[in-house]
Amino acid sequence: MNDSILDLVGNTPLVKAKRIFNKPGVNLYFKLEGQNPGGSVKDRAAYNMIKSALERGDIDKSTKLIEATSGNTGIALAMIAGIFGLDIELVMPENSTVERVQTMRAYGAKVILTDADGGIEGSRDYAEDKMKSGDYFMLNQFGNDDNWKAHYQTTGPEIWRDTGNKVTHFVSSMGTTGTIMGTSTFLKEKNKDIQIVGVQPTDDSRIPGIRKWPEAYLPKIFDPKKVDRVLEVSEQDAIEMSRRLAEEEGIFAGMSSGGAATAAVRLCNELESGLVVSIVCDRGDRYLSSDLFE
């Protein structure tokens, strides 16, 4: 038995690819982050950011939190803020899926929708301006070390443990870059030869959860030295792989997971031997109002 839903954050399963990739000597495993209670990898960072801020005394029950999000972090923050009795305002582009907005509100958050043309950058600008009034505290997932440290403390150790210390490559989509920064830091400490592969969209692609940031918006927690290689994937490839994950592997996930899986399969096809772990960021049910699975 668990004392709190928060005890269920982390320790997500690894499952081996059976149909989308099958080659002797090379094993591809997916880490199913949709199994977190809030439905995504962002539960880890949200929990660590809020818990650490409370422990340091940066925030208390009277603090009004505000954060810009493309979706998954907002859902995680809404859930965890509610558990701790904190008020939170989440800012996201108006073209975000209705499931995401409704889920945040279900957890008790206030949701502000900014102009779709401005993207997540516009949402970040809005949140920054509101914070300057002095009435809000921003956790700032893009510049908060507690984001990547969540993965240093949990995701990396889980992968090392569950692969029996045999992981050779780690593949992750890059958004805030918290997942890849923290996991890379841990795995490289264990074995400097483990290859860390980041995934970005091609210039003409829009893939929710994966970004190629303009220089002014590059996450402050990002350190390019912790990524050995970056693979670019197209929007169409990410869509097709998301559908294949569901149809062929029974893994129902969003487009950023499809993007990471595309890169992982491409990488695996280059290898003669290895154990590759790819992050499946979330669950597909929060994309049903989009055309991802049509």
From TrEMBL:
<feature type="domain" description="Tryptophan synthase beta chain-like PALP">
    <location>
        <begin position="6"/>
        <end position="282"/>
    </location>
</feature>
<dbReference type="InterPro" id="IPR005858">
    <property type="entry name" value="CysM"/>
</dbReference>
<keyword id="KW-0808">Transferase</keyword>
<dbReference type="InterPro" id="IPR005856">
    <property type="entry name" value="Cys_synth"/>
</dbReference>
<dbReference type="GO" id="GO:0004124">
    <property type="term" value="F:cysteine synthase activity"/>
</dbReference>
<feature type="binding site">
    <location>
        <position position="256"/>
    </location>
    <ligand>
        <name>pyridoxal 5'-phosphate</name>
    </ligand>
</feature>
<dbReference type="Pfam" id="PF00291">
    <property type="entry name" value="PALP"/>
</dbReference>
<feature type="modified residue" description="N6-(pyridoxal phosphate)lysine">
    <location>
        <position position="42"/>
    </location>
</feature>
<comment type="similarity">
    <text>Belongs to the cysteine synthase/cystathionine beta-synthase family.</text>
</comment>
<protein>
    <recommendedName>
        <fullName>Cysteine synthase</fullName>
        <ecNumber>2.5.1.47</ecNumber>
    </recommendedName>
</protein>
<dbReference type="InterPro" id="IPR050214">
    <property type="entry name" value="Cys_Synth/Cystath_Beta-Synth"/>
</dbReference>
<keyword id="KW-0028">Amino-acid biosynthesis</keyword>
<keyword id="KW-0198">Cysteine biosynthesis</keyword>
<dbReference type="GO" id="GO:0006535">
    <property type="term" value="P:cysteine biosynthetic process from serine"/>
</dbReference>
<dbReference type="InterPro" id="IPR001216">
    <property type="entry name" value="P-phosphate_BS"/>
</dbReference>
<comment type="pathway">
    <text>Amino-acid biosynthesis; L-cysteine biosynthesis; L-cysteine from L-serine: step 2/2.</text>
</comment>
<feature type="binding site">
    <location>
        <begin position="175"/>
        <end position="179"/>
    </location>
    <ligand>
        <name>pyridoxal 5'-phosphate</name>
    </ligand>
</feature>
<feature type="binding site">
    <location>
        <position position="72"/>
    </location>
    <ligand>
        <name>pyridoxal 5'-phosphate</name>
    </ligand>
</feature>
<keyword id="KW-0663">Pyridoxal phosphate</keyword>
<dbReference type="InterPro" id="IPR036052">
    <property type="entry name" value="TrpB-like_PALP_sf"/>
</dbReference>
<dbReference type="InterPro" id="IPR001926">
    <property type="entry name" value="TrpB-like_PALP"/>
</dbReference>
